Amino acid sequence: MPSTNKVVPQTINPDLLKERQTASFKVDELTRWWYGGHEKLRLKRQLEYHILDKMTGHNTMLFYKSHEEICETAVKQSLEVAKKLRELQERLNPGGNDIWPKMFSSSLIQGSTPAGNPFVVHIAMMVDAIRKQSTDEQWERFGKRAENFEICGTYAQTELGHGTFLRGLETRADYDRKTEEFVLNSPSLKAYKWWPGGLGHCANYCLLVAQLYIDDQPKGVQMFFVQLRDEETHMPLPGIDVGEIGYKMGFYGSSNGFLGLKNVRIPRMNMLMRNAKVQPDGTFVQSPASVLTYFTMVKMRCLIAENNATHLAIAATIATRYSAVRRQSPINRNEREPQIIDHVTQQLKLFPEISTAIAYKIATNSLWSMYHDTLTEIERGNYVRLPELHSLSCALKVICSADASDGSERLRLACGGHGYLTSSNMHIIVGSTSASRTYEGENTVLLLQVGRFLMKSWRAATEGKPLPPTASYLATFLQRKSFGRWSGNWENIVSAIQYAAANKTRLAFESMSQRLKQGQTEGEAANNTGIELTQAAELHGRSFVAVTFLAHVTGPEAGKRSAAFNDVLENLLELYLVHTALRHLSEILQCIRLSDHEMRTLQTRLEKALSQIRPNAVSIVDGFDFHERTLSSTLGAYDGNVYERLFDLAKQSPLNQEPVPKSFHTTLKPFFKSNL
Fold it and tell me: What domains lie within the chain, and their CATH numbers?
């Protein structure tokens, strides 16, 4: 049983107790699998013991504070977490530096900073970018200071007028040969940096993404290490206009900021020069691969996909436990109100989200493997795999954030009116997943980038050229005269999703080619084919998730798991594939013939899959092993004492600390006496 925040007596709700006693598998096996083995699970629990176990009070009390108080709380909590992680680092690996930077931005301890963490961008993006983009000399000069938290920075890329379209960024860095300096300027209000986490009132440095100009000639987007505030007084330096952008949905205390620059000068060696370089005389040395400038963004998209899988699993845990406790609406007249989890319509809200979270967990593990393999190749000077990694990270970031956002909202609705309370914590999950659909690349724009990758891959397939592994199904499509017989088994459904993705790619390619023949420019043709390109890109991502889920459940790893746990994974795979096929049935029917009976069978299988998961649903989400601080939910606590927790927290509201509020005497009573 996970450690709990003891707001109420720790007696387990009898309905939850019954659910756990009748599970067909051992929960701890799922937990070890979810966290990647015994050692990683042990580290996770050490983190919780060291950081989360000692926290008291419910996180929802935070939202009775003012915006300024929330921001101050976020800074205090985040720095306390950093301190505790340092202590744990020294305990587990004295002198090492391999735990705290990774864990500081990990979803494993997100419950420790409910107000948001204004320093995540510093660790996850700025330090990472300096490490990968700077020279050894630059790393020694300012990279180590950033890694050691001697200074605090952020990654200043997005502007008020430009986001995902990085080539459109307006911030300028003009090289001055006489002084060997870059002169930084925001030429318009639209060029102000906007959104970087921590920039508002925490960061004293930043990595500035700006257009490099030499002799007024553009040389492309580069990164510059820039001091923003005095290290002693924290006052903005001359030419720096910096502040916080205000209250927003989710990430309440993350200190997102704005930044304007006017004739700010920095030394030549403050441009990160591992790849592209500017010599003292102004000679520009091109990067061996322009996409290397954006490689930190690739990593962040991998991280976003992974974190959204976790957020969806958290929401599913809350809603599933609540659904096992809540009783309402008799199925048979004159019988006791059942657990709402027994309603098939409720199961359809819950169980596909559980299976989707698990599918994305497996897919993002595969994505991370590709990321590390590609990084190794880059260090050897081989950039061949970069386009495929970039495309796949974009695709998974899009579909994972979209599904987590939509799914967490469905799960909030599955909690009825109580899901609307901040004490359910659903608002934070919904807000966080919704925000991820636009940050680090707006989803539609990213799909269009994936679409361009597919157009190049389709052309290569038609010319018989080698294809990246994740696009190899395009060549298979070309080799087949038709899909063949629909059997409906797992391999057949996965092949159908790939076949539909290939067909959408074909249609998009043909539409774009036709528009080019009609005289449209390449840009016009791509814009006018945008709908088909995004459809093909989405199916490309979904085919990858389906392939990896199937391979994991039926591959060699299955032999290392118990038969009971394999049965659970197979039921979840069945639900995921059938649900995905029904969700994209129109695209499948465009290129594959299914009879009425075959389509009805899919519906029957959906209902059967729900019924097979039902007895294990609570134990499956228990297997995610989320700490009570991570859940931070009156509805999703391990003990299931929903109503006691709701009432207990309502009594703690500041408005309930006095029997009569001040507003009665100042406003309400005078109104009653006014004879209106």
Answer: 151-287 (2.40.110.10), 462-561+582-593 (no CATH)
